[in-house]
Fold each of these.
Amino acid sequence: MSLLFKSRSSQTEGQQKSLFASPYFFIMNLIRQGVHSLGEMWRTPLASLMTIAVLGLSLTLPATLYLVVKNVSQVSSGFEDAAEISLFVKESMTQQQTQTLVKRLALYPEIDKVEFISKGDALTEFKQVSGFGQALEYLDANPLPDVVIVTPTIRHRQPNAAEQLLKKLEAEREVDFGKLDIAWLERLNALLSLLKESVITIALLLLTSVTLIIGNTIRLSIMDKKEEIQVMKLVGATNTFIHAPFLWTGVWYGIIGGLFSFICVALMMWWLGSAVSEVAGVYETSFDLIGLTMSEFGVLVALATALGFVGSYLSVSRYIKEIEPDKV
Amino acid sequence: MINFQQVSKTYPGGHRALEKVSFHIKPGELAFLTGHSGAGKSTLLKLISLMERPSAGQVLINGVDLNAVKSRQVPYIRRDIGIIFQNHRLLERYSVFDNVALPLVIEGTHHKQIAKRVHGALDKVGLLDKAKCSPATLSGGEQQRVGIARAIVNSPPILLADEPTGNLDPELSMDILRLFEDFNHHGTTVLIATHDIGLIARMRYRSLTLKDGRMIQDPLAEETL
């Protein structure tokens, strides 16, 4: 495109048009630029690696916090049977009356599951677990009542709905009283949402710092190549042409930093995995840490790439404009 | 081709570099621009290559008023003007080939075309065998010739040179000037800024002389008077 000489270089112009008309050449050109700027980073391996390490670690922290929330949520979802309602059957009831109660409860639409624990079973279990086995031998009669454990359907597990269900069940003739322990569940949920909120805040801060780190790295690299940019402008390079390699560098920092943080997280999970199962062993449960899934890994890298682009774009649009070939 | 009409340039801070300069260089002409250092030679070249804008007056190239050129169009203007600098302004990180190829890469020329044209330009300045060298390993005269090859590789209609022989001995300077003559014979308009009066004296070309920002000698203008 010659502004001064309309007839000039019509040949190259035609060539350029075909270059942009064909998406194949456009993409090939983009890939070539990308590979080239990766090669540029390789020219200063130590500096590039240090930047990547900083970015990787800054991304590792939010990723780890995310996993903490995810694992804690998993643990607390294991406590869903905490939303059980225990119904204590009146002592005066016969075994048959209790059985009809159990059958009747099973027909409730609000109820998912009904479990009956007879006073005999309860005593046996209590003897085993409590360690009062011998002391209990001295009792004349079984002091424990029959218990029906009711699990509400998911819709009726919310604190309010569960409370209403409890009132309804307590109205049953055979039931002495019911018990629903939801206060601690509410506390746990509140704690969990607080944890989520703080993770989001910390993640936002760290992602901002990633953007700024990339922006600053690109700014330094622009300052370093000031002379080169001036010469390019002198021989007719457009700003877009000069921007491209810097934007690519930012994107590469994002991609590689994202991969780095993924490796860090994976190593950490592997390291903590055995420690966690040891703790779980002490508590006589089994618990497996959940790592990042493939799609979460994809999101992590995509996010890092986007931040790389934004960071470098901020620097590029600000600083390349300022470099003009004044001094000849 | 290059037409200055009452052009003045005052830098911020009040330094008046050019004052009401008018001249016209015809297409296919070769002209020298002389004067002491600080007389405004570099400023004049900067106005043509749009590194500076005039404070008053008009600069026209091929009839196009440069005042009307928007800043985002500047790169396209510069592609029509080959510029050669006293200090070469080569990129040390790249090979001679890559340095010369730069204007073509910027224009998006196909890589086969690039190789052909770069070799052609290097052949013209006699450095075909140094294509793979780093500019730092070349002598001053050779570096200057690489700069010339870069300026002519996309065959611009206008060639500007700012003290192209500044650091060279007379013999090398003559070689460089012969190159400019050669390009001129092929139709390129050439404007060379130099303070090397002895060099100009030996060649019969028009020379414009600046003194303290004013045009004091323009043979062509005198003829018309």
Amino acid sequence: MNEATSFALRCCIFAGIALVATGLILSGSSYGEGVMWTGLLILILSPFAGVLVTYSHLIAEKDWKWAKVATILVAIILIFLAVSLLRN
Amino acid sequence: MDPMLILALVAIGIGASVLGALFGIGGGIVFVPVLTILFGLSASEAAAVSLVGIIATSTGAASYFIKSGVANVRLGLLLEITTSIGAMIGAVIAVYIADWALLIVFGCVLIYGAVSMILKKERVIEDPKELNDMCFSYTDGKDLRTKRYEVVNVNSGLAVCTGAGVLSSLTGVGGGTIKVPLMNLHMRVPIKVASATSSYMIGITAFSGAIVFFIHGSLLLDYAAAIAVGAFIGSTIGTRLSRMVDAGPMRRYFSILLLAISFVIFLKAGGVL
């Protein structure tokens, strides 16, 4: 589980930072802004991607106690997001 | 954007992130005042950029700490539940409470944590005799020994994390400054595990805020990008440094950092920052 979670976080952050840095270099061109927005989105999503990978591993390992904990956390994050988006 | 401005933001990202990754505090306490005072950003613009910096710091650090087994993912998931609930409560009650009063309470909590960490010895339950769901192990990068420990006072720890979530949501200061002393002093989690686990948790908390700013398009793109690149470089340095530091000095350094942060918070409460 640790290996998979770490790998997911690493992939997301490397991809996100690579795109963000490329976007900064290209900031004078028409592509720069789009590349930066894509990089930032990948970067921002990375912690949640890590939680989802951990969650799927806990289910695959039939570690039900901790899978329940992860289910509650994912539900709370989604509720928080929905409430935040609806309020604004 | 001016290349010199980009370089300055990258440098700030590196500095804040080294501290953030080393001690599991994210770095928001540095990002927000610097962006508002030096760069003239509004509070909400600085908060949005800071959240991106915190995510880059915590994700970079967490990927390393999780792989090396120092961060406790299960404990992080558990404590994050009540932290997130606290953050939701904080967002709802924010309009009813005066900022300065909260900041003073927060500053006092940090001073209490700092003094406790200086005065009280680390009381980790090593090699517990009876194994249960809250027994874990990690390998200390300093001496490469695998150490077992037991997490205690889980229910009260969860309750305090709710308070940490409320305070961080109301004041904009990351909950890591409360969660690390809480895990270490109250739940008997070794300091290195506590700060690594806090790094993992902070990213999850910051995600919820940052994605809302992103969807509304209220992120300052160039600022967020430059801070993110700096924060990623800083987190790489900070995680490597943490391997070389002993647990004892690390607690002392963390206490000094808490005192410095509480000083900044009191300045903010007094309207100086």
